[in-house]
Structure formats: C-alpha cells, structure tokens
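Q: I'm building a small set of examples for a reading group on sequence design. Run inverse folding on the following structure and report the sequence directly after it, with nothing in between.
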C-alpha cells in the first residue's frame, strides 16, 4: 500500500469522480483506477460501489477513510518535523481544533490546501483537543490557527 494509493483514495472519496481526481493529481485516469484496484486487492474488500459513472463509498471504504486520513496526517507531521530539524521547512503552522471536526473538516481543509502547488511547502502541526483547551492554547500563543468555540467568561450558570 503506497501513499499515492492512499492519497488517491482520499481524493476519490471527496470528489467521487475518477476523471476529476486524475486531473487534480496530474495523472491518467487509468492510474487512478489502477491505484484503487491495487488498494482494494490488497485490503481484500471493495472500497467503492460503481454504477455507471456514479461512485459511492462502501461501509468498508467509509471505515478505511478515517484511518487513511489519520495515517497521512501523521506522515505529513513526521515530514514536517524532519524538515524543521533539517531547517528546510518553509513554514510551520500550528493548528488546533476540537474533536468533532477531526475527521470531517480538517482532512478536507488539508486536501484543499495541499492541492495548490504554492502550499506544498507549508507544514502543519496539529493539536486535537476539547474546544476549551484549544482556545486556551491559542490565547497562550501555542497555536497559529484554531477552530474552537469562543469561551465567554461573563456567562454564569443559572439554576433551572
């Protein structure tokens, strides 16, 4: 299983069109098809149902997507750390977010950012935590960007 296969899988999950994925990845459509076929063969399950030109994730594909996104995010973080150690990373962005958007918004956001050539040297360090902790870390300067619920100290609990 290669990172190219996993990346192609994530793009296909989001875009749901072989031709558009091929265009985004600058490869032939047959390459996209082959990568997905190899991945399905290795996993021993169908990741997509294909009817005419429409594709949908199977339950296996839905389950695998979560792990694939996490795995690639960890690999990106590892690359970022090594580049930082070697002094070749152009920019490190520390991004915090609360748990419920970890598997929906964040992977899609990263895919959109990295599909643009000029952003490929930007690296992210992630903090996934409860919203209160993310806000606190942002206020302390430990994060550059954050998705969190605003904390309002003026609100008091009112007995019901």
């Amino acid at each position: 299983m290669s990172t190219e296969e996993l990346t192609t899988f994530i793009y296909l999950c989001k875009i749901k069109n072989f031709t558009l994925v091929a265009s985004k990845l600058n490869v032939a459509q047959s390459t996209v098809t082959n990568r997905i076929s190899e991945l399905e063969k290795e996993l021993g399950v169908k990741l997509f149902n294909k009817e005419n030109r429409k594709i949908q994730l199977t339950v296996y594909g839905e389950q695998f997507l979560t792990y694939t996104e996490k795995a690639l995010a960890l690999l990106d973080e590892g690359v970022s750390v090594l580049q930082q150690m070697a002094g070749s990373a152009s920019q490190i962005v520390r991004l915090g977010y609360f748990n419920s958007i970890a598997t929906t918004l964040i992977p899609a956001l990263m895919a959109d950012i990295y599909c643009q050539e000029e952003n490929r040297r930007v690296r992210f360090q992630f903090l996934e935590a409860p919203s209160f902790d993310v806000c606190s870390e942002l206020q302390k300067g430990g994060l550059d960007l954050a998705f969190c619920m605003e904390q309002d100290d003026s609100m008091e609990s009112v007995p019901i």
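The mean pLDDT is 82.
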